[in-house]
Amino acid sequence: MRRTAVSLSSLALVSGKVYFSETFGDGWENRWTASTWKDSEGTAGKFVASAGKWFANEAEDTGIQTSEDSKFFGLSAGFDSFSNEGKNLIIQYQAKYENNIECGGGYVKVGPKMADAAAFGDPTPYNVMFGPDMCGHTKRTHLIVNYKGKNVLKKADLPYKQEGEGTTHLYRLLLKPDNTARVEIDGEKIYEGSLKEDWELLAPKEILDPEDKKPSDWVDSSMMDDPEDKKPDSWVEEKRIVDSAAKKPDDWDDEEDGEWEAPTIDNPEFKGEWSVKRISNPDYKGVWEAKKIANPEYVDDDQVYKFADFGFIGFDLWQVKGGTIFDNIIITDDVAEADAFAKKWAALSEVEKAKKTEEDEKKAEEAKAAMPPASDASADADDDDDTEED
Asked: Is pLDDT above 80 for 78?
């Protein structure tokens, strides 16, 4: 359902707008367009409506679920184009990995209006990609920002919350006009910082001077051989020596057996290979680096947060193991509207955690019941002893 919210105060009129919202109620298939990008390869998966195995109210908690394994999933929805210039922008949604996905994503892409939604896929330009992603030991919450046609990954990974417990997590991204971003997962702030500093969106302000050369007398070796250290005259480096005690056998025939040579043995006085002692180099000047100069290609931009057009949101995912459920998507500039959706997650999360605890306890009881009683185990041990005695 799409809606626009306006809140009034006694002092001023404050506009808060919901650009897009979706709870996957009746008719969601008509609001979303399935991608045909992978149809010709036979690897396109299908989204189905599902509340999963844990829910508070099945109708209210029904979202869309990736229903197959080892498939690509493409689905998008359009909305009226808008720009986030001069305003906060919140992108928020729920994701639940009911299965261990093994390798795959659970992120959303939000970008400019598409000419052909059915062609939506990996090549489709987007403004922001946000959400969980994992493959093998690599686990992170993606936050990729497009700047001047280039998709730029955050320098440091954000924490990953889909740890296989099978409960729903709430993802919120806030882009602000001061060129900062804030990420919250389950209502907890996991990142807040500068788009300029934490992404390589702009060219560096300074670069190493290509004309600066290391002086020929620059000493960059911190250690040197001790000129006072000399190998002792008594130092023995021969590892093997001729066995002086060996005698040529009486039956040795030089003509038939060749010239006899005494065998070698380990030298009992061998001290190993000698090496000169290393000392600190008094002429060491440190690691040389060219001086820095202003980068002629650097251009500042006070609006790296801004996008001229947002017009679609979509899922473009590969998953080895399906079963991921998405729900309660909202794109807005109004925190109160996003918080209202967050309350839905909080209510569902409480039920899920209770049911998970109940299921874990049941499994523990079943595992305990499957174990043989201690008395039987003792009797089995006695039988074993009797068999050994027999």
From this structure: yes
User: What is the average per-residue pLDDT within 184-208?
Assistant: 96
Beta bridge partners of 239: none
pLDDT digit string (tens) for 211-243?
999 999 999 999 999 999 999 988 988 899 888
Provide the phi-psi class of 106: left if phi over 0, else alpha when psi is between -120 and 50, else beta. Answer: alpha
Residue 174, domain CATH = 2.60.120.200
Question: What is the mean pLDDT of the segment spanning 163-185?
Answer: 94
Phi then psi for residue 255, to 5 deg, are -70, -40
How many independent structural domains does the chain possess?
1
Q: How many angstroms separate the CA atoms of 225 and 281, rounded?
A: 8
Tokens representing residue 130 in the block:
């946000």
Residue 27 in any domain: the answer is: yes
Q: What is the pLDDT of residues 314-355, one digit of tens each?
A: 999 999 999 999 999 999 999 999 999 999 999 999 999 999
Q: Are 127 and 307 in contact (CB under 8 A)?
A: yes
Binding-site residues, in ranges, read 107, 109, 126, 133, 316
For 189, the token pair is 């702030």
Listed in sequence order, the residues at least 6 apart from 161 whose beta carbon sits closer than 8 Å to its beta carbon are 132, 141, 169, 185, 186
pLDDT at 338: 98
For the residues of 336-389, what is the DSSP string, one character each? HHHHHHHHHHHHHHHHHHHHHHHHHHHHHHHHHHHSPPHHHHHHHHHHHHHHHH
Question: What is the 3-state composition of the chain as percent helix, strand, coil, each rounded to the nearest 5?
Answer: 20, 35, 50
The answer to whether position 57 is within a domain reads: yes
The helix/strand/coil state of 119 is helix
List the domain range (segments joined by +) for residue 333: 6-205+302-353
Model pTM? 0.78
In a domain, 326, yes or no: yes
Contact assessment for residue 242 and residue 264, using Cβ atoms and an 8 Å cutoff: yes
Distance CA 219, CA 214 (A): 10
Residue 31 in any domain: the answer is: yes
Binding-site residue ranges for an alpha-D-glucoside: 107, 109, 126, 133, 316
Rounded to whole angstroms, the Cα distance separating 63 from 171 reads 15
